[in-house]
Every structure is written in structure tokens, then in C-alpha cells.
UniProtKB/TrEMBL annotation:
Keyword Glycoprotein attached: no
Protein name: Prepilin-type N-terminal cleavage/methylation domain-containing protein
UniProt keyword terms in alphabetical order: Membrane, Transmembrane, Transmembrane helix
SUPFAM superfamilies, alphabetized: Pili subunits (SSF54523)
Membrane-spanning parts: 19-41
Coiled-coil intervals: none
Length: 144
């Protein structure tokens, strides 16, 4: 019998101890990585929700803009189209659903700009609206 045959027993597998140690190491690494991956998943979900809210608010503003254009261009309309639109938007407070969509009207007022102070309350030719949906806000101006 030669020496190579005596040392080679023919078993080429893993021992039970090696498999158990490998499973324990993988479990420990997985446990350490769980808080990191959980935070990343929560962050990605939050950005998706914010994007969805921004898209919904954009639709509301587009609906308002279309309505204001119709009011402004209506040849049979009487009076001030901005005042008509001011009334159509509703009052400051919660608007779960309206003809424009779902939003909360946070601010609604007429403003004007002057050279010294910038934006001031008053005037009749600019309407400032601030809309909110689940902590996402948008401010828009409508003028005549």
C-alpha cells in the first residue's frame, strides 16, 4: 500500500460542526444587517408616499388652473373672474373632496407686491393659495 492511499479516506464532505458554525455566522450577520435594511425600506416607502402626494396636489392645481381659465375666458361671465374663482375655491380649512380633488386649503388671500416690502396683503389682482395634503404643501398664484 502506498502512502497516498493511506491518507485519502475518500470522504470529501463537511462535518456537522462546520455546517452549524456556518449557520450561526450567517444568522449573526443577518441580525446585524436587519436594522440597516429596515431603515432603507422605510425611507424608500416614505419617498414614494411623498411623491404620490405631490402628484395628487399637482392634479388639484391643474384642475384649479383649468377652472380659472374657463372662468376667465367665459364671454358670458359677469364681474371679476378672480373673485368668482376666489369663491369657487372655498374657505380655509379641511376639504376632503371637492371638484378639484382632495386637499386642505391652508391659506387663501389677495396679495400684491411692492418694491420695498415684497409681498403684502391687499390688492385685488393676485390670489395666493396654499394647499396641503399629508404634510406636503404647494403655493400657487392666480392673477388677472
Amino acid at each position: 500500500m502506498n502512502s497516498t492511499q493511506a491518507t485519502d479516506s475518500g470522504n470529501h464532505g463537511f462535518t456537522l460542526l462546520e455546517i452549524i458554525i456556518t449557520i450561526i455566522v450567517i444568522a449573526l450577520l443577518g441580525t446585524m444587517m436587519l436594522p440597516l435594511s429596515g431603515a432603507a425600506l422605510r425611507g424608500s416607502a416614505q419617498s414614494m408616499i411623498t411623491t404620490e402626494n405631490e402628484t395628487r396636489l399637482l392634479r388639484v392645481v391643474e384642475n384649479m388652473n383649468a377652472d380659472y381659465r374657463r372662468t376667465f375666458m367665459d364671454p358670458s361671465g359677469s364681474g371679476n373672474p378672480l373673485a368668482t374663482f376666489f369663491t369657487a375655491v372655498g374657505n380655509v380649512g379641511n376639504h376632503p373632496t371637492s371638484t378639484y380633488g382632495a386637499y386642505n386649503l391652508v391659506e387663501k388671500r389677495y396679495i400684491q407686491f411692492n418694491a420695498n416690502h415684497g409681498e403684502v396683503t391687499g390688492g385685488t389682482n393676485l390670489l395666493k393659495l396654499t394647499l396641503e395634503l399629508d404634510n406636503t404643501r404647494v403655493t400657487c398664484l392666480f392673477g388677472q
